[in-house]
Design a protein that fits this description.
With 334 residues, the protein is of the alpha/beta class. It has two domains: 168 residues, Thiolase/Chalcone synthase (Peroxisomal Thiolase, Chain A, domain 1, 3-Layer(aba) Sandwich), CATH 3.40.47; 149 residues, Peroxisomal Thiolase, Chain A, domain 1, CATH 3.40.47. It is built from eleven helices and 13 strands. Helix 3 crosses helix 4. The protein starts with 12 loop residues before the first strand and ends with a strand. The mean pLDDT is 96. Bound molecules: acetyl coenzyme *A. The site of acetyl coenzyme *A (ACO) has 23 residues, from helix 2, helix 6, helix 8 and strand 12. Acetyl coenzyme *A binds next to helix 2, helix 6, helix 8 and strand 12.
Length: 334
Amino acid sequence: MFESKDKKGLLPVGFIGLGKYLPEKVLTNHDLERMVDTSDEWIATRTGIKERRVVSNGMVTSDLGARASEAAIARAGLRPEEVDLIVVATITPDMPFPATSCLIQEKLGAKRAACFDVSAACSGFIHALTIAKQFIAAGTYKNALVVGAETLSTIVDWKDRNTCVLFGDGAGAAVMAPVSEGGILSTYLGSDGGYGELLMIPGGGARFPASEKTIREGLHYMRMNGGEVFKLAVRAMTESVERIVRENGFTMDQITCLIPHQANVRIIEAMAERLGYPLSKIYLNLNRYGNMSSASTVTALCEAVEEGRVKRGDLVVLVAVGGGLVWGSCLVRW
Ligand code: ACO
């Protein structure tokens, strides 16, 4: 062990390997023009999205998650059987149970790992990494694989132009472990269940178990009050960034890169304006992938590092908000 414990006896924890997997099939805005009454111009100007990926050939969430995980584990220099813990954030599990983390474990051959899933919608990756960090910092586990994986194409109503243009499929994964320098400086989580009705899948759970009626009424599809979610998303993301930066004694001009949940470029622009933070320092990939819920932030982090936008010593903030409502942020010294 090369890292030393802090005053609370906790180990510093960081990311030692990142990976992503995007399905090959591309669905462009022009493709959507042939499916619903919409236009490339409407989607691009209202959301910033130009295309998204969707699964094909029977691929499911655990397949995407396993591929992203293989890349992350390889970059971390580990073998699958050395992984201690797998935490998967998803709102599109392969099935209600067993947990998608167990299915990914089996696909990876990560026989030694403890596994569970986290349900925190678009903030799922930040929630999952916060949990994993505690286990590693306390010395309970030596490492953790944290995955955000989604097949949102399976829960959107492809006849509803209000929602189907916004989402895409994909997965990102991060291996976390003790580090000798830098690492996660702080995490912050928040929620307000009073806004639960704004973004939900009403059917298929205990309230409205799947039946002919729930199918007929489309209760198994995502429902969203876009306008309200938009306003709350701007507020929650802005506050989550301000708070984590301020409480750790930094100012926004010290943050090298801000990596937000990739829902809508207008949400991100409004947040940037409120923070007085230049858009040029915010990493964006939603034009290519749309909103991939729990997979968005981790995939964006992975690409920001691959493209050299995040380098050793940089201060990076991750921030997300999602259905629940839940939100969170994470401050990292890279
Ligand atoms: N193509 C063409 N017209 C459309 C489409 C579409 N795909 N979708 C909606 N419209 C129409 C509406 O029906 C409406 O028509 P009307 O005025 O005749 O009723 C018109 O466009 C304007 O609709 P608005 O809701 O005013 O459009 P707005 O500018 O608010 O954009 C959007 C809608 C993109 C959904 C926006 O509210 C948004 O992004 N909200 C955030 C939702 C989100 O990102 N959710 C993701 C999950 S939560 C999270 O990740 C943060």
